[in-house]
Amino acid sequence: MDQRPTKREIDKRLKEAKQALREGKGAYANAAKISGELTALNVFDATRLWELILRLMEEITLDDYEGAHPPQKSREPAIADCELWAFAWNSSLLKKRMYLKFAVYEGIFYYVSLHKSKFLEEGTYEMSEMHE
Questions:
Q1: What is the pLDDT of residue 43?
Q2: DSSP type of residue 33
Q3: In this model, does residue 123 exceed pLDDT 60?
Q4: Treating both helix axes as pointing N-terminal to C-terminal, what angle do 46-57 and 7-22 enclose, rounded to 10 degrees?
Q5: pLDDT at 52
Q6: Which class for 82: exposed (0-12), middle (13-18), buried (19 or more C-beta within 10 A)?
Q7: Any idea what the CATH number is for the domain that residue 99 is in?
Q8: CA dist., res. 132 & res. 127, Å (int)
């Protein structure tokens, strides 16, 4: 028996997420938790954020999936029990390894987390992260 998620399932979620963003259907899973991430990315305008996430998602491939098998379930009230989709990839746009976690629920893209990845490559910590 194959372990979830399958490549087909990952592809479907990525397509659903991009479609929601193209339609302007973006929301925060927990707005209070993301202000530090947005500041670190120099994003101070929500309209720019959704555009940025969509551009970053164009860089993500199926092999960049870094989430659990099966996907974790959210504990955030807005998306309770929704599956979380996590990806880490080398972003050519931001010139760093990035990490994105989101959910798609009822056609809406829910931002959970977007930040510089703590891992350079699979299983390798960045030295500065080891001392925090």
A1: 84
A2: H
A3: no
A4: 150
A5: 95
A6: buried
A7: 3.30.2310.40
A8: 10
Report the phi/psi class of residue 95: left, alpha or beta, with left for phi > 0 and alpha for psi in -120 to 50. Answer: left
Per-residue confidence (pLDDT) for residue 46, from 0 to 100: 74
- Mean pLDDT score across all residues of the chain: 89
Using CA atoms, how far apart are residues 71 and 82, in angstroms rounded to an integer?
9
How many independent structural domains does the chain possess?
1
Calpha distance 67→132 (Å, rounded): 23
Query: For residue 129, what is the enclosing H or E element?
Result: helix 127-130
Query: Residue 103 domain-assigned?
Result: yes
Range of the domain at 33: 7-130
Q: Reading across the β-sheet that carries 96-105, which strands appear in turn?
A: 26-28, 108-116, 96-105, 85-91
Residues 25-34: what's their mean pLDDT? 91
Q: Which amino acid is at 83?
A: E
Decide: residue 66, CB within 10 A, 0-12 exposed, 13-18 middle, 19+ buried. Answer: middle
Contact 66, 83 (CB under 8 A): no
Closest Cα to residue 19, out of 112, 107, 113?
A: 107
pLDDT digits (tens, 9 = 90+) for 43-54: 888 778 999 999
